Structures are given as structure tokens and as C-alpha cells.
Amino acid sequence: QVQLVESGGELVQPGGSLRLSCAASGFAFSSYAMAWSRQAPGKERESVATITSGGVPIYADSVKGRFTISRDNAKNTVYLEMNALKPEDTAVYYCGRVWTIVGGAPRSDYWGRGTQVTVSS
Q1: How many alpha carbons fall within 13 Å on the CB side of residue 115?
Q2: In whole angstroms, what is the distance from residue 78 CA to residue 23 CA?
Q3: Among candidates 21, 50, 54, which has minimal Cα distance to 108?
Q4: Checking phi first, is residue 114 left (phi over 0); if not, alpha (psi -120 to 50) or beta?
Q5: Nearest-CA neighbor of 35 among 118, 110, 113, 115?
């Protein structure tokens, strides 16, 4: 039913850029806010960016000014443009469907399997 498939994760050098994509299906994509989260081994999962159904972005402080979330409702796809990447950005990045946003924090009911982003020399 609901499917979220991330792609675009790669090994990249510090200071480099990547664009992650999340292809969504099985639901009314344009009616939902979408989010990107990330998790590294030994660390808690953290919200990275959220985009409302109206296209308004919300970013974690750690990525403000470097990452850009966007969506293309015609393609049922949400993107995460990542620039000026740092080693601490290394993580598995997950795409999620948001069912509510409380105090700026998105809560998702579905997540994809994730895509690995590794920032290293």
C-alpha cells in the first residue's frame, strides 16, 4: 500500500553535495506533509527537514542554510538537496509521511527503508 523509496545516497567528500529522492505511492501524496530524518549507529534518530502539504519547509538547526527540502506533487516525489556536507551528516536518511506536526516536530506513520549517506575523505 503505502510505499516510500529513498535513493541518491552515496559516499561523498566533506564539502560536497548530494540530492536525495523519495518516491511515494499508495496514498494521496499532495495531502501530506513529508519529512526526512536520519540516524547514525549509536545515535538517536533526528528530524532533518519537513515540508508541509503547502510547500512550507522546516529545518533542524544543524542543517539550516545547507539543506533544502522540496516536493514535486506531479511526480509524488520529495527531495533533499544537501550542500556543504560534513562528516557528522553521515547517516542513513529516511523519508517519512507526516500525519501531524506538533510544536514544529513532525510525527510520521510510514518510513522508507533509508539510503546511506557517507561523508568522508
Answers
A1: 19
A2: 7
A3: 50
A4: left
A5: 110
- Using CB atoms within 10 Å of the CB of residue 104, give its burial: 0 to 12 exposed, 13 to 18 middle, 19+ buried: exposed
Going by their DSSP bridges, the two strands 67-72 and 11-12 should be labelled as: unpaired
| Cα 66–Cα 89–Cα 74 angle in degrees, nearest 5 | 60
For 54, the grid coordinates are: 503547502
The CA-atom distances, in angstroms, between 56 and each of 59, 84, 108 are: 10, 22, 17
Reported as a single tens digit per residue, the pLDDT across 43-91 is 999 999 999 999 999 999 999 999 999 999 999 999 999 999 999 999 9
